[in-house]
Specification:
Length: 195
């Protein structure tokens, strides 16, 4: 059991390290807005929950998921969100602090980015879950869900740490769309969408 928990921790960290950066950007973007933390945490759990459900169903053979080549197109979600955010910044919408809607982060946006960014997670989790018992899969899921809470806390901490918060408040409106576009492009490229 302890060995499974250690493996689960290592697997979670290895497959989700980039989420801390994205979460920090989301927290910085929504800083000072009521409900931001709740929306980001709910979105992160929704997106990651979708990854887990897909991984478990596919590994148990209950569902024939999308062909592997289609998973690459999940990259369109963060790519389009990044382009939309970049467009708002370029138009100047992102600079006006009085525009609450432009700075509000929705749970569905976070969930979409998390799920799209988790295509590689599904590819890693499915073979591991396929050779695991139901109890072992349960341990993985519990550890992963605890990991999501830790990742959310870390993202919020980084976004509120004075030095990092200052940098994110100054550059976050530029870094967020660049990060989303980069994530989307990498998912498309690594998944073979252009092959």
């Amino acid at each position: 059991m302890l060995a499974t928990m250690i493996q689960a921790v290592g697997l979670f960290v290895a497959t989700n390290i980039d989420d801390v950066i994205v979460l920090s950007l989301f927290f910085a973007r929504g800083a000072g807005r009521a409900g931001t933390t709740r929306r980001i945490v709910v979105g992160q759990y929704l997106g990651f929950g979708g990854i887990l459900v897909a991984s478990v169903l596919v590994s148990l053979g209950a569902v024939t998921f999308l062909p592997e080549s289609a998973i690459a197109y999940f990259g369109l979600i963060p790519l389009l969100l990044g382009l939309l955010t970049a467009w708002k910044v370029w138009r100047g919408d992102g600079d006006d602090d009085d525009r609450v809607a432009d700075k509000t982060i929705s749970a569905l946006t976070v969930a979409g980015v998390t799920f799209a960014n988790g295509g590689d997670n599904i590819g890693v989790y499915v073979p591991i879950f396929a050779v695991s018992t139901i109890a072992t899969i349960g341990v993985y899921i519990i550890v992963f869900l605890i990991g999501v809470a830790i990742w959310c806390a870390a993202g919020r901490y980084f976004a509120s740490h004075p030095i990092i918060a200052k940098a994110l408040s100054r550059w976050g409106h530029i870094v967020l769309p660049v990060a989303l576009i980069t994530i989307g492009a990498l998912i498309l490229i690594k998944g073979g969408a252009f092959a």
